[in-house]
């Protein structure tokens, strides 16, 4: 484990992913299909950014819940081996570790089968002041899929984080129901950087374009809205500058699992280093592009030097 005090804490979803590639079809009955690769990885909107940040050299801690089972042991031991402080990754024997089975198609898309499990056990008791001590950035990952804390508990926690001067980044997983806004809307005044995907931004805002989607977030108190656009790059908006586009570069995509989480990790590192948001987003896009070239959330991305070298090849506006 990294002996330095953590500068960043991730809080939210911790998942064990089982991925197989390439899945062109599911065989009928008890038929057999041979795959090129099957892999077990640490994933989730809190766990994956934490692993990536550790690889990028950032002292990092994480908070959440896993089950008292083999998958939970895998998630904890793997993250600890990567250098993540898992002291506050709580074990709860009343639910299995959250897990997904991902069938990776040749275009990189990934239909999923998912068990919510222990992520549903994250509770207000996990949102203590001590996990905020000393950190510079809090990354909250998974708003909308954490029923134990979505809503007032999270709002209060983010308020306390801002009172301590902590930068808040937020990723979300909307379901398309009214509960999305119950979980998210009151959090927005405490969010410095929100990181929705292109589809999620339109779903939540009801807009039909990214400029209006960004305005929806900004009008509710978010300081900066960063909409990830996949192969098209990102859209960055602040009150004075709406929907400025930053392109990425084309890569040979193997699997898009975890690309958004990798983007978050690069962005966070750039912000820690005092970079303007545009440069931080370039590092984020580099991390996402690297992960897209392998299988799983932990693929290809290995170090800051590697990510920085890739970021330097990206086109500039």
Task: Explain how this protein is built.
- Keywords: Kinase, Transferase.
- This is Sugar kinase.
- InterPro entries: PfkB_dom, Ribo/fructo_kinase, Ribokinase-like.
- One of its GO terms (molecular function) is kinase activity.
- The chain has 9 helices and 13 strands.
- The strands form 2 sheets. Strands 5-4-1-8-9-10-11-12-13 form a 9-stranded mixed beta sheet, with helices on both faces. A 4-stranded mixed beta sheet has the order 3-2-6-7.
- Helix 3 (152-163) links the parallel strand 8 and strand 9.
- It is globular, with a radius of gyration of 18 Å.
- It has one domain (8-311): UDP-N-acetylmuramoyl-L-alanine:D-glutamate ligase (3-Layer(aba) Sandwich).
- It has helices at 47-55, 70-82, 152-163, 179-184, 198-205, 210-219, 259-272, 277-292, 304-311, and strands spanning 8-12, 15-21, 37-43, 60-67, 85-92, 99-104, 112-115, 137-143, 167-172, 193-194, 224-228, 234-238, 241-246.
- The chain starts with 7 loop residues before the first strand and ends in a 6-residue tail after the last helix.
Features:
globular, 30% helix, 13 strands, four-stranded mixed sheet, UDP-N-acetylmuramoyl-L-alanine:D-glutamate ligase, 9 helices, alpha/beta, 317 residues, 24% strand, nine-stranded mixed sheet, single chain
Mean pLDDT score: 95
Q: Which value, in Å, is the CA radius of gyration?
A: 18 Å
Q: What is the CATH topology classification name? A: UDP-N-acetylmuramoyl-L-alanine:D-glutamate ligase
User: Shape, please?
Assistant: globular
**Widest beta sheet: strand line-up:** 5-4-1-8-9-10-11-12-13
List the uncertain runs.
Answer: none
* Biggest beta sheet summary: 9 strands, mixed
Strand content: 15-25%
**Strands, count:** 13
Series of secondary-structure elements, N-terminal to C-terminal: EEEHEHEEEEHEHEHHEEEHHH
Instruction: Specify the CATH homologous superfamily.
Output: Ribokinase
Into which percent range does the helicity of residues fall? 25-40%
């Amino acid at each position: 484990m990294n002996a330095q005090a953590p500068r960043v804490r991730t809080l939210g979803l911790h998942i064990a992913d089982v991925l197989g590639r390439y899945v062109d079809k599911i065989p009928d009955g008890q038929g057999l299909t041979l795959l090129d690769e099957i892999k077990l990885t640490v994933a989730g909107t809190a766990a994956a950014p934490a692993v990536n940040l550790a690889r990028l050299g950032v002292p990092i801690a994480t908070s959440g819940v896993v089950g008292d089972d083999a998958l939970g042991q895998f998630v904890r031991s793997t993250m600890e081996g990567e250098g993540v402080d898992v002291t506050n990754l709580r074990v709860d024997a009343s639910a299995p570790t959250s897990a997904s089975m991902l069938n990776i198609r040749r275009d990189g898309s990934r239909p999923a089968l998912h068990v919510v499990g222990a992520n549903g056990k994250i509770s207000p008791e996990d949102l203590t002041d001590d996990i905020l001590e000393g950190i510079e950035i809090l990354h909250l990952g998974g708003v909308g899929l954490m029923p134990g804390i979505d809503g007032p508990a999270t709002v209060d926690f983010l308020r306390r984080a801002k009172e301590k001067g902590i930068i808040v980044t937020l990723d979300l997983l909307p379901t398309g129901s009214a509960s999305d806004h119950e979980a998210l809307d009151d959090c927005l005044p405490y969010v410095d950087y929100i990181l929705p995907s292109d589809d999620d931004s339109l779903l939540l805002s009801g807009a039909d374009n990214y400029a209006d989607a960004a305005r929806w977030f900004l009008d509710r108190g978010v300081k900066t809205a960063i909409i990830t656009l996949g192969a098209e790059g990102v859209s960055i908006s602040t009150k004075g500058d709406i929907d400025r586009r930053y392109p990425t570069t084309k890569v040979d995509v193997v699997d898009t699992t975890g690309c958004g989480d990798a983007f978050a990790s690069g962005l966070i590192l750039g912000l820690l280093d005092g970079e303007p948001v545009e440069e931080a987003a370039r590092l984020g896009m580099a991390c996402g592009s690297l992960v897209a070239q392998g299988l799983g959330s932990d693929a290809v991305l290995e170090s800051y030097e590697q990510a920085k070298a890739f970021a330097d090849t990206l086109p500039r506006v």
